[in-house]
Write a structure and sequence with these properties.
alpha/beta, DHBP synthase, Rossmann fold, 2 domains, 10-stranded mixed β-sheet, 14 strands, 17% strand, globular, binds threonylcarbamoyladenylate, binds magnesium ion
């Protein structure tokens, strides 16, 4: 039984299949059903999920065991597939034409009506997107018929996997299927270039170098990680989503004009998960914060969330949202 089996179910061993038409079709089917599939890219193995499915994306964070929600890269099989997801300007078209398919990720503004899960972009108005330079990766994405969110296919804190066995050792049965395409060619993650800002900004160095990008763009890149004046923590490079309204944590009731974001059985404005399911709560978190933020409230009160499993990442983001603004 593959379909319908909840991702909270931990199986002892990963299923590994060699690359052929059957395994590619199976991978596509599983991804369309919200399951996690690991596949090779030219850089490292990715842990893929349907990028338009909040629950599937929540399952990625649960499988990785990360204590926070970092925005994920959305993978496409063709540059034309970007238009519905992100706003592609002339600069983006230039570097795509030169470096795609390949180890270059572009951060671009979210398109109006973009179907990409807000959890995939950790609530941000931008989306990181790339077209991998590996036939198997593109075949899996095409078989799924969806954009695929995929971080490196390892547990949080472990080294990035460049072989199917590494994925199996790190994730075991947390992934429904591993498509074994042998060793990855590049071995380090893609370059991340932010084109959502006026000045193109190198967020993560990788296989495509700053010099190559500067030659094509005809202007120098901002490189925050090399600038001694820039914030030291890499976590500060990607700005975090925070609602415009003040956020109050561990609330059991809403004050006058406050919205109450609930968890578990309770009366509230919106409920992250009436049944108290942390994966459902993670899937709803950013979308619900935005919905409340758009309404006429004075603040957002949030019910207590247990500090276990995905609750750790949910609470991390809620504490950031509630922290005093500078
Ligand atoms: O080579 C790769 O890029 C691999 C393969 C699987 O494609 N993927 C990968 O994903 O390395 P991950 O999740 O480990 O790294 C994603 C990087 C992080 O540094 C994250 O902060 C950044 O991309 N990122 C994603 N979305 C972003 C956004 N909207 N704004 C800024 N940075 C973003
Ligand atoms: Mg990684």
């Amino acid at each position: 039984m593959f379909y319908g089996a909840g991702m909270s179910q931990i199986l002892p061993h990963a299923r590994i299949e060699p690359v052929n038409d059957t395994s590619i079709a199976l991978a596509g089917d599983m991804l369309r059903h919200g399951q996690l599939v690991a596949f090779p890219t030219e850089t490292v193995y990715g842990l893929g999920a349907d990028a338009t499915d909040d629950r599937a994306v929540a399952a990625i964070y649960a499988a990785k065991g990360r204590p926070s929600f970092n925005p994920l890269i959305v993978h496409v099989a063709d540059p034309d597939d970007c238009a519905a997801l992100v706003r592609v300007d002339d600069r983006a078209r230039l570097v795509m034409a030169r470096f795609w398919p390949g180890p270059l990720t572009l951060v671009l503004p979210r398109a109006a009506g973009s179907p990409v899960s807000l959890l995939a972009s950790a609530g941000l108005d931008t989306i990181a997107i790339r077209m991998p330079g590996h036939d198997v990766a593109r075949a899996v994405i095409r078989a799924a018929g969806r954009p695929i969110a995929a971080p490196s296919a390892n547990r949080s804190g472990a080294v990035s996997p460049t072989r199917a066995e590494h994925v199996a050792e790190s994730l075991g049965g947390r992934v429904a299927l591993i498509v074994d395409g042998g060793a990855c060619r590049v071995g380090v993650e893609s370059t991340v270039l932010d084109l959502s800002t006026e000045r193109p900004t190198l967020l993560r160095p990788g296989g495509v170098t700053a010099e190559q990008l500067e030659a094509v763009l005809g202007q120098p890149l901002a490189c925050p990680h090399q600038d001694p004046e820039a914030p030291k923590s890499p976590g500060m490079l990607a700005s975090h989503y925070a609602p415009g309204l003040p956020v109050r944590l561990d609330a059991t009731h809403a004050a006058a004009d406050e919205a109450l974001l609930g968890f578990g059985a309770m009366d509230c404005t919106l409920n992250l998960s009436p049944s108290g399911d942390l994966e459902e709560a993670a899937a709803n978190l950013f979308a619900f914060l935005r919905r409340l933020d758009e309404r006429d409230y004075r603040g957002i009160a949030v019910a207590p969330i247990p500090e276990t499993g995905l609750g750790v990442a949910i609470n991390d983001r809620l504490r950031r949202a509630a922290a005093p603004r500078s």
